[in-house]
Amino acid sequence: MSTWLSKSMFADLGEIGERSAEKALSRALKGKTWNGFYLTVREIPGVGGKAGTQYEVLLSTLPRAMQDRYFAVYEPLEKQRHTDEKASRLRDFRYSIIRPVLQIPHSQRGRGKIVKEIAAREHLAPDGEFITVTEVTIYTWIRAYERGGVTALARKVDKRKGTKIVLVGYRWDREVQLSHDAKVKIANDLRDYVRGLHKNRESRNNIISKASRDLLRWTREAGFDATPEICRVSEVFVRNERHFRKAGQFKKDRKAYEDMRPRIRRAAALLEPMEIVVGDVHHLDFILTRVPGFTPYPKAVSWLDMATNRIWMDIFMLPEKQGIRNEHVIESFIRMCNAWGGPKHLYLDNGSEYNWADFITDAMKLIRGDDCFRIDRFDRQTGVIRAKAYNAPAKTIEGVFGRLETHHFQTLPGWIGGDRTKKPTANLGKLPEPFPGSFDDFKEAIGAAIKLYHFQDQTRDQGNLKGSPAGLLQRAIDAGWTATGIDPDAWAVAFSEEKVKKVTQGTISHNGLWTCRELQSYVGDRVTALIPKYSTWNRLPLKDEKGKLLGFAERDTAFHPLDISGAIEGDARARANRKAIRVLDKLAPNIDPLDDNSRHASLLPSEPVTPIDAFVTASPEAKEIAAGLAESAVVRLNRQQEIQLKESRDALEADAKFRRLLEKNKWAS
Length: 669
Hints:
The protein has 23 helices and 18 strands. It is of the alpha+beta class.
C-alpha cells in the first residue's frame, strides 16, 4: 500500500519550515525538482490550503535519508494510533458508502439490492487506494450508524495518543516479544548507556556497535532469543543523546571546552467598526519641493474602516524609480492597528502592485488566531477578501479618495489634479508651484484635512445612517463596541521567520554576534531564532531544539581590554555554562573505558587463524643478509673486537716466524 505523507510530516523529515515545505510541494506538483529529486505530490480535500485543498507527498519518492527517518520515527506511531484527522476522514468515507441505503426506511424493500450494488463497485478510500467493501461490512456500518449516529462510524482514538511509543527502534519494538515493562527497562538502560558513551566521547560507530551488543545481550537475558540484526541500534537513537558529549569534553578536553565556552569580546567598537478594513496604495496628486534623488510626487498607504468611513493615511516620499514596498505597508499597518485596534477582515486589491499576501498572512494569523490561512476571493472566512481585477468602484476606499480630493485636498497648495499632463497652474504657461513647505509640513496639512473629513457629515452605504466618521465611531462606542488591542510585542511573531543558528561559545551569528544567559548555559548545538523579515530588533527570541522558548538574545557587547566589567561578565558566563555542564554530567553514568573495552573484547570471538599452504625458504645469502640486519650493536662490537684480536695474533705470529727465518739464515751463513 502506498504511503502518503502530510505537508507537516514532510517539513519535519526534511528539517525545513512548513511554508518552505508548502512551496516545495507546490513546485513538485508542477513537475519541478526539490533538491534534485522528483517528488510525487497530490492534492486532497481538507481544511486550509488553496481552495480548501492540501498537499500530500508519496513516501517512496523522498530521498533515502528521509525515508529512513520516517521508518525510525513515524511508522511505529502511525501503526499504533489513529489521529483525529484520520478517524474523521474514515468516518466520512464510511457514511458516504452507506448513505444510499439509509435513505430507504426499514419498512420498504430495496436495501438489499443497493447493498449488493455498493459491494460490487470499487471505492476511493481516504488513503488514495481503490478498495471493495463486502456486504457484511456494509451491514455492520449500517447497524453502527443506527445505534450511535455518524460518530459511531469512526474508529476510536488510541488511548496512548500523545505518549512516547517508540522505545528503541521500529524493528526491535515490533519483533521483540517481551512484556512492555521489560522493554521499557531495557530501553532506559540502553539510553543511559549511550549517554555514558557519549560522555566518554566515543565515536558514533563505536557507540552503535557497543550499544547493539549490549542490547542483544539484555534482550536475550530477558528471555527473547533475538538476532544481531534486530538489535542493531539506529543512528537516530544515538544522535538524540549526542548533547551529552559536552560533559565529556568538559572532563577530558578542557582546552576544547575552553575554546568553545561562552566568552566576552574585547575590542580597542509592530456592520461594527474594524469589521472590514480596506487597504490600498494611492498616488497623491501633489507636487512637493524637489529633493535630489527623490520623486516630488508623494505616495500614501491608506486604510479605510468601512463601518465608519474613517481613513488612516501614511505618506511616503520615495527615491526615484522606487515604489511602495512591503516594509512601507507593514509600517503603516502596524501604526493603524496600534491606534485603531485589529481588523477582523481585510479587503485588498487584486493587482500585482498590491501583492501583500506574505505579510498580510502573518498579520491576520496574529489578529484572528488562525492556525491555517488561505486567500480566496470568494471565501469570507479567511480574513482577507480580494477585489476583482480592474473593478475599482467595488472598493469603498476609491469613493473616499474622491471625496477627500474634491472637498479637501484640492484646496491645498501644490495640488496638480488627477491628470498630470494637464496640471492646474497659478500662472498660465508656467510649471505648477510645489507645496510651500517641508515634507513634515505637508504631512501635517494632510492630517488636518483628514481630521476635517472625519468630522464632516456624510451619507453612509446605500444612503442610510447619515453622520460623520467620528460620530459613527462614537455611536458604536456608546453601544458597547470595543477595539481589539494588540500588544506591540506580538508583532514580533507575526513578522518574523524561524532560522536555525549554530551555537558557538554561547553566541549565535546574525549580522553580528548575539548572546544571553540562557544561551550561555545551553548545552545543545543549535537553536531556532526568530528573525524579523522587514525590520530590525534589539532582541531575538530563541527556541531550543524541542521548540520551547529558550530566551531573548541581545547583541554581544565588546569590552575594553582593561575594563574590569569585562572580567566580571566573563566569569558570569563561565559559571552559567559550568552549572549546565555539571547538571548534564549527573544525568549520564560514569563508564570506565578500560573496563568497558575489555568487557566487550572478551565478548568477541577469537580472531581467525589463516592456514599455510606453502612455505618459502630463504637462500644462504638471504639468510646471511637477514642475520646481518638483525645483528644488535653489542654483538656487532664483540664480533669486530674478535676480528681485531685475531688479526693482531696473526700479525704477531707472522712477525715471530719472520724473525726465526732471519735467525736461521744468519747462522747458516
